Please model this.
Amino acid sequence: MIGNGTGDPDDRDLVRYGRITNPTVHIALGQFRRVMNTLIAEYGKPAQVVIEAARDMAKSAEELNKIESDIRKNTARNDRWRAELQAEGLLAEGARVGDRFLRMRLWEEMGKGPADRLCPYTGQPIALHQLHSDEIEIDHILPFDETFDDSPANKTLCFRAANRIKGKRAPGDAWSGEDLAAIIARTKHLPTNKAWRFLPGAMQKWEETRGFEDRQLNATGYLARVVRAYAEALFPKTDDEGKRRSHVWVLPGRMTAMLRHRWGLNLGDHNRKLREDHRHHAIDAAVVGVIDRRMIQVLQTHARRMGVERLDRVLP
Model:
């Protein structure tokens, strides 16, 4: 059962088994099911299933140190926010934070002081006591339904009434003229990866530069997790001795590309992946088929020691 399935055998299949809310992932899982069932019908149940995922390789010590440094900074920042919210009576000690820290992050991003933190769409100041009330909403600057971008870079704070006017549109599509010019002026100081989303033509820019790639990357990562859970249903969770055994394992897509290149299996000079030429899928499947767990362990170990960018130097 997936998604919001009822599990009731009397319901039709789509209701009984559920539907994944992301349509791309739901359709792809259906394709995976058909391929897997066809293979089982032809060759019998597999001994193992190997899945290539949009997942990066292990981090080097330098990369891990950077991650740990960021974690420490974020922890200190979160502690500061918690203390501030408790002092204002907006968060009880030990209470769940919910989206309060995200709101604090987006709020502080708007300006140096509370007086500078304005609703991008109305220009009204957003006070701390309003920030965590129903007056203020977290808005996806570019509509989530079209971009699938749920990152902080695509979020801002605004008054609820303004969000109703904007609807599921980009700012450049919801406003024009002097109103849009004022919005752009109020948001031009925001981080570069956010400020451009308020400009005219932002959705077109998204589609031309990042849209398809980002949507597919997010969907592919989600799909890999769902497919793994689905494939694991083929196997018992433990062996005859009661020990947990994994028959389904995932390898990083970057590793496949690295070894395909090293083994001289790329198509043409630059491994062109043309829409009408699907041979690269077969090549990737062959590469995945000969990568074993020991090879993954060796490459991951080297990646941790020296970083992924320099890993190609030590490949056999």
